[in-house]
Amino acid sequence: MNHLPLIIKREYLTKVKNKSFIIMTILSPIIMIALIAIVAYLSQLNNDKVRTISILDESGLVQGIFENSEKTTYHILENMSLDEAKALSREAASYGLLHINKLDTIEAVSEEHIKFYSEESPSLTLISNLESKLEKELTNIKLKQQDIDIDLINASKVRIDIAQESFEGEKSSKLDSFAKLGFGIAAGYLLFMFIIIYGNMIMRSVIEEKTSRIIEIIISSVKPVQLMLGKIIGTSLAGITQFIIWMIFGGLLMTIVSLVIGINLFETSVPQQELMELTSNGSDFNFYFESFKTALQNLPLMNLIFAFILFFICGYLLYSSLYAAIGAAVDNETDTQQFLVPIMMPLILAVYIGIFTVIEDPHGTVSTVFSFIPLTSPVVMLMRIPFGVPLWQQLVSLLILIGTFMFTVWFAAKIYRVGILMYGKKPSYKELIKWIKY
Amino acid sequence: MNNLLEVNEVSKNFGDFKALNKVSITVPKGSIFGLLGPNGAGKTTLIRVINQITMPDGGKVHLDGEILSPTHIKNIGYLPEERGLYKSMKVGEQALYLAQLKGLSKTEAKARLKYWFERLEIGGWWNKKIQELSKGMAQKIQFVVTVLHRPKLLIFDEPFSGFDPINANLIKDEILRLREEGATVIFSTHRMESVEELCDDIALLHKSNKILDGKLIDVKRQYKINTYEVGIRANNKAVLEQDLAAKFDISAANFKTLEDELKLNIKLSETDNPNDLLNYLTSKGAVSHFVELIPSVNDIFIQTVKNN
């Protein structure tokens, strides 16, 4: 008799109706958004402050290069000693004091000559900003001293960007690789998150019958395989429900909060933006943006979406079945905590293989092999697919994944059935083999 | 077929431990069958084999003439000794779920549950969670779930544990009624008085072997000791006792009487006729008590287990 739909229904409904599940479903996005809002608000406060930086240039070489900007005011000090300047900038509550000592020649410039004094250690972006300004100016001065025409140098700079095209005429760029890598990593981490959040839930669900002592009643009417499968699918569906609610609810909340407070929560990474502005003049940035767009367009989107859904689901099911197997082997939840890490290992490995190997050689031996090994294939294969993987390879890998999942569920069921009969006796290897047989 | 269940030389090992050693039992249709034995004798393992929770290493089990297979699950109702229910599920939902697992349709299960809930006067519990119920209340639900799908074979492992005397009686009556309606019952317990009261057939397991089985009445005949409990009023008890000791094998007995009688157990040999004893006794005084001692299941249990 096939009880699978019945079991799935029960598992799903009990999970979804559970009070703590409902509370977590509602509370988690609220807490998340609240945290993000606080961080965003604070970092904005920080950024609104205008910094004053005092500059004491005893060399007289670089005074002209400091132009006040929106967030930084430069205060040029003259005709005073270093100590006086320090005292003054401290009094004026300046962010810091940049001191450039007298230089005999530009060649002699070193750390000894240029120093930044401040109350607290200065931010990284500020220092690199100052450094790049100084570097540029001093280089120019040096070039001038050698009687070299700077304009000529600037004019003769050539920018090369090698266009890539496959023999079939498909265009790509080096940014493609980053887009592809990004996709793989995103998939990997999503799988990660899902497993961390819901793996335990499956394990607990498998232990449930043992702790409530209903196991013998259930096992005398249902095959353990069906029970396992039902639990995994039911709990996963509950997890997906929760995740979707989080996405929708979280998105809504985020929009509302953004509108109310007037902070764009979607772009909180201010320091990176600053860096971007520093390193790239507008045209460069546009150029990158454009090639990023083509990079996205160059991904085999349809294939990716299908592969993502299938590999994600199957990968998740496989890891869930491992949790189920652990749940089947132990008597209570306290014994299970330690198993979390070993299960995550293959996933971490997969992400690293993806980053270090697939990007370098997407169709090399290592990448190919790991895209077939079931525990790593959900991540590695997803990373490989953007580079173009023959359909048969994807199918074979998927079949291996599903096969392994079924095997693990079946094995978990064996452990489960025998586990209830062992009365705390430790099974020998001989018995383990016998378990599998019957 | 007169036997509903036939277990034929079933063996089961757990590692080096032999849990069942070629055990055979036959359970006649419509009977109440007592499965007895000390702790660790293999009763639960045998029950699990019948329920297909455990696969035997050897031997065969027939239910109603067919080799036991997963399709028979719906023909068996099992109340295990180790029992529980989903704690956070509501009583009604849970009972429906378990009934559907046994192959009942939802509407059918609902109708039957309603009947049983009214019968046992627990209708008001439908929307309660198990964790809100007492142990005895949960036991009632378990009992209902066990019998709901009207199985041919009912297996109860210590069905009365956790019940107060009133509820235990209620359950006992229900079991007897189910038997009247045609069910066959296997009954495993350590409470010998309920075996005495309910069982038609028994089997005794000890150290993984079956050491005794048959109709309860036959077993008792087999164990009869030809001993009579006697109370007799006499003027001189000491003299009478000496006289009797010379003729019969006697020992002191202890039972309650109204007068100060001489109380003895008198053992006869196989060939003696109890009427001769009675005649002899009436010639000596007024006989107030004359009863054949029938071995109780308890005695048989202890005696057999000790001898093995």
Automatic annotation (TrEMBL), chain A:
It is a multi-pass membrane protein. The chain crosses the membrane at residues 21-42, 181-202, 243-266, 301-319, 339-359, 366-385, 391-413. Residues 19-413 form the ABC-2 type transporter transmembrane domain. It comes from Flavivirga jejuensis. InterPro entries: ABC-2_transporter_component (IPR051449), ABC2_TM (IPR013525). It is found in: Cell membrane. Keywords: Cell membrane, Membrane, Transmembrane, Transmembrane helix. This is ABC transporter permease. It holds the Pfam family ABC2_membrane_3. It comes from the Bacteria.
Automatic annotation (TrEMBL), chain B:
CDD domains: ABC_putative_ATPase. Residues 5-232 form the ABC transporter domain. InterPro entries: AAA+_ATPase, ABC_transporter-like_ATP-bd, ABC_transporter-like_CS, ABC_Transporter_VariousFunc, DrrA1/2-like_C, P-loop_NTPase. Keywords: ATP-binding, Nucleotide-binding, Transport. Transmembrane segments: none annotated. SMART domains: AAA. GO terms for molecular function: ATP binding. Pfam families: ABC_tran, DrrA1-3_C. This is ABC transporter ATP-binding protein. It comes from Flavivirga jejuensis.
